[in-house]
Amino acid sequence: MGYRVVDTASIEPEPDRPCECRKLTGPAGLEELAMNRFRADPGEQVPLAYHYHETQEEAFYVLSGTLAVETPERTFEVDAGGLFAVDPGSPQRAHNPADADGAVELLAIGAPPASGDAVAYDPTTDADADDDAGGDE
């Protein structure tokens, strides 16, 4: 058996991110899932780019504020206490809108931990390709 208590405030934010990102996976000793804590001020996005994962499921649990998640179909708003789940192959871009009243804080959990599994998605070109393919996805 193994147990760990992690002081998340002691984990340094990742450099070169569009918002504050504290990677919790390593310090927690997790191997079967990835976990990150994000804090995004108004106008900041959470991931590095609009993307999808080939094999990873993702879940965003909003701790405070309201998270906006853009998808090809619509933009979802997820309030504090809400959970947004994403299936593999489903493009999304999580962000805090520029006109938000304050920061949004969330936990992002993904399984399996899929390093290098993210695929960039361009809603202007990839959406046209989906339409040409019959839009079954």
Automatic annotation (TrEMBL):
InterPro entries: Cupin_2, GPI/OXD, RmlC-like_jellyroll, RmlC_Cupin_sf. Keywords: Metal-binding. The keyword Metal-binding applies. SUPFAM superfamilies: RmlC-like cupins (SSF51182). Residues 125-137 have a biased composition (Acidic residues). It holds the Pfam family Cupin_2. Residues 38-102 form the Cupin type-2 domain. GO terms for molecular function: metal ion binding. CDD domains: cupin_RmlC-like. Gene3D superfamilies: Jelly Rolls. Residues 1-20, 113-137 are annotated as: Disordered. The keyword Metal-binding applies. PANTHER family: OXALATE-BINDING PROTEIN, SLL1358 PROTEIN. This is Cupin domain-containing protein. The lineage of its organism: Archaea, Methanobacteriati, Methanobacteriota, Stenosarchaea group, Halobacteria.
